[in-house]
Design a protein that fits this description.
The protein is α+β, with helices and mostly antiparallel strands. Helices cover 36% and strands 29% of the residues. Strands 1, 2, 8, 9, 10, 11, 17 and 18 form an 8-stranded mixed sheet that branches. Strands 6-5-13-14-15-12-16-19 form an 8-stranded mixed sheet. Bound molecules: flavin-adenine dinucleotide and 3,4-dihydroxybenzoic acid. 3,4-dihydroxybenzoic acid binds next to strand 14. The site of flavin-adenine dinucleotide has 30 residues, from helix 1 and helix 8.
């Protein structure tokens, strides 16, 4: 079978790319190793930049986002027993972010692709990419019924996340990778309890970082810094709530953390990783397949969306004999990727406790936090980075 674009991975990057290509009249096939139910339930990110929301609207997948997304005009930074509001709207001339879970973005995209006759093949095995030294790369996979399929493509998009196969297909000498691990991880929970706050709280605490986010007026999403080798089994619900209550405590304020049944619990390691270039011949990497940021800046999902906003027109033009945008793809994306990598590193190292660190580190973190909440220039820098950078229009 022939298809213009083969897409590996039905995460936000692969699905949105397929949708953006369809709007340009370019057909694609998405192949995914997991089931549809698994992809739609995997708890991950929750913050969309304005540019991401605008792009999802242009891509015709924002009906539920517009109904259920919660617009937020700021965050709280908490440290030294005080909570400070950073007002994004006021600092940036009206910019905000929208809290809408990645699970819902993925559900909306899958539903729209299938409703419009798009092909998304779930639960495939043995995905292979071949003939990358030609203009007709091949994508092979096996359907759940055992049928082996082979797609002759004009281009393949590797949107298969950090652990996928696509990046490995780029010859080692042609790919440079830059990586740093962090000596901590996040324990994330989804709880059936109304949020205890009107804006997200990023809390610096001597016992470690904590983040209070939300999913709806009835559901809370919270994260705790834990050791990277921690297992969920060591964290019964009561221990999680005690630790969260302690790290968010505001003595004398009357504020309390509401508790409720925990619906989901998982631990995520943290790393910065960038692979360059994001292209080899007719193979293009997008999203986590090419780069990972620690989650503290809420950038991972937004970067995946921004990559495919650049990739869709680049592939459309490439297939019509105009390679300029495809040739510029990697450099265009890496500019944003490195900005986000810096911001995510900065937020992460300002807010987390490094095990075994001396007192200098904690004092420098507190000095930086005091500067951010007292200098308009510093607060504007955080607000500008957090709310994001413009995305190409379709
Ligand atoms: P993914 O969402 O990873 O999608 C890749 C898809 O490819 C997956 O569905 C996978 O099953 C599929 N795949 C893999 N291999 C193959 C193969 N061989 N063949 C076919 N399909 C394949 N970001 C934040 O901003 N905040 C957060 O709190 C946050 N939490 C996270 C928690 C976890 C556990 C992880 C892993 C990431 C988290 N992120 C977070 C990052 C954010 O969710 C990602 O940046 C985002 O999912 C990237 O989208 P993607 O489409 O590039 O990759
Ligand atoms: C969420 C995740 C993040 O990484 C972040 O910085 C803010 C919010 C969330 O899942 O809601």
């Amino acid at each position: 079978m022939r298809v213009p674009v083969g897409i590996v991975g039905a995460g936000p990057a692969g699905l949105l790319l397929s949708q953006l290509l369809a709007l340009r009249g370019v057909e694609s096939v998405v192949v995914e190793i997991r089931s549809r139910a698994y992809c739609e339930a995997r708890q991950r990110a929750g913050v969309l930049e304005d540019g991401s929301v605008r792009l999802l609207r242009q891509a015709d997948v924002a009906t539920r986002l517009d109904q259920l997304g919660l617009e937020h005009g700021g965050i709280y930074l908490q440290f030294g027993g005080e909570r400070h509001h950073i007002d994004f709207r006021e600092l940036t001339g009206g910019r905000s972010v929208t809290v809408y879970a990645q699970t819902e973005v993925v559900k909306d995209l899958i539903r729209q692709r299938l409703a419009q006759g798009g092909v998304v093949e779930f639960e495939v095995t043995d995905t292979e990419i071949d003939h990358l030294d030609t203009d007709q790369p091949v994508l092979r996979y096996t359907r759940p019924d055992g049928t082996r399929c082979e797609l002759a493509c004009d281009a393949i998009a590797g949107c298969d996340g950090f652990h996928g196969i696509s990046r490995q297909r780029i010859p080692a000498g042609l790919l440079s990778t830059t990586e740093r691990g962090y000596p901590y991880a996040w324990l994330g929970i989804l709880a059936d309890v109304p949020p205890s706050t009107d804006e997200l709280i990023y809390a610096h605490h001597q016992r470690g970082f904590a983040l209070h986010s939300l999913r709806s007026p009835a559901l809370s999403r919270l994260y705790l810094q834990v050791d990277p080798d921690e297992s969920v089994g060591n964290w019964p619900d009561e221990r999680i709530w005690d630790e969260l209550a302690h790290r968010f405590e505001l003595p004398g304020s009357g504020w309390t953390l509401r508790q409720g049944p925990i619906l989901d619990k998982s631990i995520t390691p943290m790393r910065s990783f960038v692979a360059a270039p994001m292209r080899y011949g007719r193979l293009f990497l997008a999203g986590d397949a090419a780069h990972i940021v620690p989650p503290t800046g809420a950038k991972g999902l937004n970067l995946a969306i921004a990559d495919v906003a650049v990739l869709a027109p680049a592939l459309d033009y490439l297939l019509r004999g105009k390679p300029e945008l495809a040739d510029a793809y990697s450099a265009t994306c890496l500019d944003r990727v490195w900005r986000s990598t810096h911001f995510s590193w900065w937020m992460t190292t300002m807010l987390h406790r490094t095990p075994g660190a001396d007192d200098l580190e904690a004092q420098l973190q507190l000095a930086q936090l005091r500067y951010v909440v007292s200098s308009r220039a510093a607060a504007t820098s955080l607000a500008e980075n957090y709310t994001g950078y413009p995305i190409l229009d379709l």
